[in-house]
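Thread: "does anyone have the structure for this chain?"

Original post by V.I.:
We have the sequence but no experimental structure in hand. Need at least a predicted one for the grant figures.
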Amino acid sequence: MKKDELSICGLAAVRARFERDAGSVQRLFFDDATGRKIGPLCKALAAARKVYRCVPPAELEKIAGTLHHGGIVAVVTVPKLRAPSAAEVAGWAAQRAPLLVLDRIGNAHNLGAIARTAAFFGVPRLVLSADPTAALPGEAAHRVAEGGLEAVELYRVPDIAAFCRGLAPHYLVAGAAVHGRAVTPAELRSRAGRQPIALVLGNEEHGLAPAVASACGQLVHIPGGDRVESLNVSVAAAVLIYALLV
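Reply from O.Q.:
Generated one for you, tokens below.
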């Protein structure tokens, strides 16, 4: 596989990629059972003179690099992620579009789960960190997202703290926190009024970087019991997206 390619596994994720950007699909491999369900996909690849074929289970596993391929693997061109312009951000805010910002989410499965939740609730955009420890939308993230990564626009910025400061004139920037000067989702929503909210989620282990937390206009927490300190970040994302962005 080329450096600028990745494998997308699972029928839901592959169909979502075809719907969004069929031209990015370079090759398609599937087992016999799945082949009976994907006639239109094969027809599109045939018209584009691209490779598609039914392969034995062992070969499909090798192509996918995992047992969890769901019977189908699409080899696609990796999209290049860019930072949004100031004009784009202002336009999003003018449309009152919610925004999700991820500060060094390091686990690809969490990234995929968060993207799936965002897509389910209609959050249109995710902004990722360019920090080298941050997960990117690769094979594992796409597999967990079940097509969710195809339903959101992805951006990537080199400095999340600076990006959050730039959001401040347009958004109420709310960082998820366990401790500190945090309010509940209900309190935050009342303070936001008609201003759209940009929700910022931090690293699984360390939370928000200090500079990112300082760049947020408000910190928000999910009130719970005292048996455990916090939720998994993908679960916290689901709760906060529903409470704040829907």
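V.I.: this helps a lot. The chain has eleven helices and eleven strands.
O.Q.: and The chain has two domains: 5-77, 86-245.
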